[in-house]
Design goal:
Rhopdopsin 7-helix transmembrane proteins, membrane, transmembrane helix, DUF998, transmembrane, DUF998 domain-containing protein
């Protein structure tokens, strides 16, 4: 039996609200780490990973950024499923969101000169929190390009499938490049990671906005 008109209208508004919440979470995540990175004493955005912002006196800001963005994206995934879109796509977005939350709950270890005073290299032994952070990060950086590729097959039209396929390809290449740069402690590791994040998070926010409209 169909929902009463008033109830259906409220449900539609609630779904739209959580979709816009997901979009805002994705975009504000990028704005926050970009601004924080260029204003943080001792932090070098070109070299240091975004996760390193969760360390030091201002570390709470990036920790909060991880958790709030992840929660907003997860809520947006629920809203996406409620629109009648692909359940698989919604589940993949939700996995990405939960992994972001985990990235905030389990911070990386201090290393590579940040926070100031930390060893310049990578420790031979890392904490269990760092290992959980690495695992969550792997899910984050591989689930999103997979999500974009799936979107290329399930979304209607020409523009969104094409945009999604390009996003998946570019982010996968950037993610692999970031992994190699991280292993070699390349001086532009942070820059490569930021390229992957900006491409992927921008696409995700626009996907939520598209679904909301």
């Amino acid at each position: 039996m169909p929902l009463p008109r008033r109830t259906a209208s409220r449900t539609a508004r609630a779904v739209t609200a959580v979709l816009w919440l997901g979009a805002a979470g994705a975009w504000l995540f990028v704005v926050t780490f970009l601004v924080d990175g260029v204003t943080r004493p001792g932090y070098r955005p070109v070299r240091h990973a975004v996760s390193a912002l969760a360390l030091g006196p201002r570390g709470w800001l990036q920790t909060t950024n991880f958790i709030l963005c992840g929660a907003a994206v997860t809520a947006g995934a629920v809203g996406f499923a409620a629109t009648g879109g692909s359940v698989l796509l919604a589940v993949l977005i939700g996995v990405f969101g939960v992994a972001l939350v985990a990235s905030g709950v389990f911070p990386m270890d201090a290393m590579r000169g940040y926070p100031p005073g930390a060893p310049e290299g990578t420790p031979e032994e890392t904490s269990w929190r760092h290992r959980r952070h690495d695992e969550a990060g792997a899910v984050v950086f591989f689930s999103l390009p997979v999500t974009a590729v799936v979107a290329a097959f399930v979304l209607d039209g020409v523009v969104w499938p094409t945009y999604s396929a390009l996003t998946g390809a570019v982010m996968l290449v950037a993610t692999l490049a970031f992994g190699q740069a991280w292993e070699n402690d390349h001086p532009r590791t942070g820059l490569v990671q930021r390229a992957a994040i900006v491409v992927g998070w921008l696409w995700l926010g626009l996907l939520f906005a598209h679904a909301a409209r």
